[in-house]
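TEACHING EXERCISE
Course module: macromolecular assemblies
Task: Read the component lines below, then compare them to the predicted structure of the full complex.
Student: A.B.
Group: 4
Components provided:
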Amino acid sequence: AQSVTQLDSQVPVFEEAPVELRCNYSSSVSVYLFWYVQYPNQGLQLLLKYLSGSTLVESINGFEAEFNKSQTSFHLRKPSVHISDTAEYFCAVSEKGGSEKLVFGKGTKLTVNP
Amino acid sequence: SQTIHQWPATLVQPVGSPLSLECTVEGTSNPNLYWYRQAAGRGLQLLFYSVGIGQISSEVPQNLSASRPQDRQFILSSKKLLLSDSGFYLCAWALGQAGGGYEQYFGPGTRLTVT
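Instructor-supplied answer key:
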């Protein structure tokens, strides 16, 4: 069975600083990978996804994530964060050809300070 | 485009009372449907999922149940609520393998407080 580890439960940064949110997964088969963002008292929004092809995927608001098969990682990065990026971020994995479920990490709370 | 609705948005219920949360999806057919619970500091816990009408898979044995009476309607129920049922309940839909997608799309959630 697959699992997801988000190594940092909380990440505080200053505005305009770079940030990396770490995600590692465990699976015996090929996977699809996702990052979701959750603002307070809202549902989760899909931020970006890796299904196949280029290992570097980007979102429309400046985030990017790189699939590293050898390190079983899918870290999320942004070169310069804004106050509005303050939210909780969840990494998720699904096995190709497997059950139609996502396995989520426990989340990383990103706080951007002025 | 597809949209997902959940209601109510917030709910305060006494211990031992029944529960019914509803989720509906518009703009797609035969979606996979999911119920999650999010407790403070504990991430997302998958409770139930459904790949078709009347087909429900339970992930966590507890006093909750789910039903899918129509293609795009998913209901979460309980006969008697416990304090531990408090949390943020999220419904999600996905196209599933048949639709070529695995990503899930979430509703706005229901905040349940059991007192």
